């Protein structure tokens, strides 16, 4: 089956196979492997060795976003949050439930936030210590440029927390160029194409240490992850998803062999180009204008007529392609992921299967 969903993504068979081992996390061989993996991740984030540190946390993307917010934003503290998609909505909720106060910038879900909108919102909330934002908004596929976000935070003298869960590894970003960042967060899955189960924040070491005990949560305290890791290098506080970490090492090797971030972005962009061109040839309208289309997911208007989402998903699945059976735009759409261990040839096969599935349902737009 070819998974065309933006997480958990299609993985390479070598990454899946690496899971099939028993490992003791405190074993000295594994400790060394784990320490080396964290250093590699700091390097991929463009961090400065000794100044930035990779802080791993068991769980999914929401866990690490919540941990970053709890660790760096004081309880009851305010932060500015551009709202242009599902993951901003989710950040709003998890921050609110953690007793932090988002100050939303209301936006449509079809375009990125602008520098002017960020400047105005930050100026109107002088007590907000942070700007928090989603880079790649996986609800619709738009991309809030981390350079625009970073520059706005620096101009306003605020700190920045980034949800880079569906961007990290594919979208260019160098922590060394972003002294305003408290945390960039992501997972083992999505653009790094590992198994799901682990999440990471890359953070400035000393700023993180200064926040020890401020998270109102032991599990989500990134400063506690830092200091306990320093006490016993390579160790974990709680039982880690150790096979996920081990196989993540293979995923990172494949990432480096492919050519790292530029190569991964190029493959995803080519997947997206093939997808959008294929859908337009079938008469299916994309949800986003081409200039607002990020590389991770394509959203398309449902064609109407005989189209219904679940029968369409079923017809595609019979042809070996699996897409989401839900959408989270206001208008009815369907979603096709372009990330994971998916090649341009896979994408061409998927476009052909989508055409056949629409024909089977007699749901091809009349023009096609
Ligand atoms: C996938 C994703 C998350 C985290 O989702 P989980 O299901 O918790 O892994 C967070 N933000 C974005 C932008 C995502 O794409």
TrEMBL record:
Keywords: Aminotransferase, Pyridoxal phosphate, Pyruvate, Transferase. It catalyses: (2-aminoethyl)phosphonate + pyruvate = phosphonoacetaldehyde + L-alanine. Its cofactor is pyridoxal 5'-phosphate. InterPro entries: Aminotrans_V_dom, NH2EtPonate_pyrv_transaminase, PyrdxlP-dep_Trfase, PyrdxlP-dep_Trfase_major, PyrdxlP-dep_Trfase_small, SP_NH2Trfase/AEP_transaminase. Residues 34-301 form the Aminotransferase class V domain. It is an enzyme of class 2 (transferase). Transmembrane segments: none annotated. Its EC number is 2.6.1.37. The modification N6-(pyridoxal phosphate)lysine is found at residue 190. GO terms for molecular function: 2-aminoethylphosphonate-pyruvate transaminase activity. Involved in phosphonate degradation. Homodimer. PANTHER family: 2-AMINOETHYLPHOSPHONATE--PYRUVATE TRANSAMINASE (PTHR42778:SF1). Belongs to the class-V pyridoxal-phosphate-dependent aminotransferase family. PhnW subfamily. This is 2-aminoethylphosphonate--pyruvate transaminase. It comes from Roseomonas elaeocarpi. The lineage of its organism: Bacteria, Pseudomonadati, Pseudomonadota, Alphaproteobacteria, Acetobacterales. The gene is phnW.
């Amino acid at each position: 089956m070819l998974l065309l969903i933006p997480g958990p993504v299609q993985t390479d068979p070598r990454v899946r196979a690496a899971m099939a081992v028993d490992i003791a996390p405190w074993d000295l061989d594994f400790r060394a492997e784990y320490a080396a993996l964290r250093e590699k991740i700091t390097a991929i984030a463009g961090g400065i060795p000794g100044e930035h540190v990779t802080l791993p946390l068991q769980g999914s993307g929401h866990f690490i976003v919540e941990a970053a917010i709890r660790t760096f934003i004081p309880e009851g503290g305010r932060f500015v949050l551009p709202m242009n998609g599902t993951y901003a909505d989710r950040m709003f909720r998890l921050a609110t439930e953690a007793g932090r106060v988002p100050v939303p910038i209301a936006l449509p879900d079809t375009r990125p936030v602008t520098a002017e909108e960020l400047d105005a919102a930050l100026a109107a909330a002088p007590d907000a210590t942070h700007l928090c934002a989603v880079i790649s908004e996986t609800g619709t596929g738009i991309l809030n440029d981390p350079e625009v976000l970073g520059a706005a935070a620096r101009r306003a003298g605020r700190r920045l927390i980034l949800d880079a869960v569906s961007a990290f590894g594919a979208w260019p970003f160098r922590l060394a160029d972003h002294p305003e960042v408290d945390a960039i967060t992501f997972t083992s899955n999505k653009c790094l194409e590992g198994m799901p189960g682990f999440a990471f924040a890359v953070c400035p070491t000393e700023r993180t240490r200064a926040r020890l005990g401020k998270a109102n949560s032991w599990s989500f305290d990134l400063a506690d992850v830092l200091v306990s890791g320093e006490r016993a290098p390579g160790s974990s506080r709680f039982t880690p998803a150790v096979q996920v970490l081990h196989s993540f090492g293979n995923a990172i090797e494949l990432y480096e062999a492919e050519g790292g971030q530029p190569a991964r972005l190029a493959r995803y962009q080519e997947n997206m180009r093939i997808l959008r061109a294929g859908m337009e040839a079938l008469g299916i309208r994309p949800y986003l204008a081409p200039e607002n289309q990020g590389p991770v997911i394509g959203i398309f208007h449902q064609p109407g007529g005989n189209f219904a989402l679940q029968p369409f998903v079923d017809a595609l699945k019979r042809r070996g392609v699996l897409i989401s059976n839900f959408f989270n735009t206001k208008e009815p759409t369907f979603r096709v992921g372009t990330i994971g261990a998916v090649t341009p040839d896979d994408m061409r096969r998927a476009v052909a299967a989508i055409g056949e599935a629409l024909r089977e349902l007699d749901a091809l737009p009349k023009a096609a």
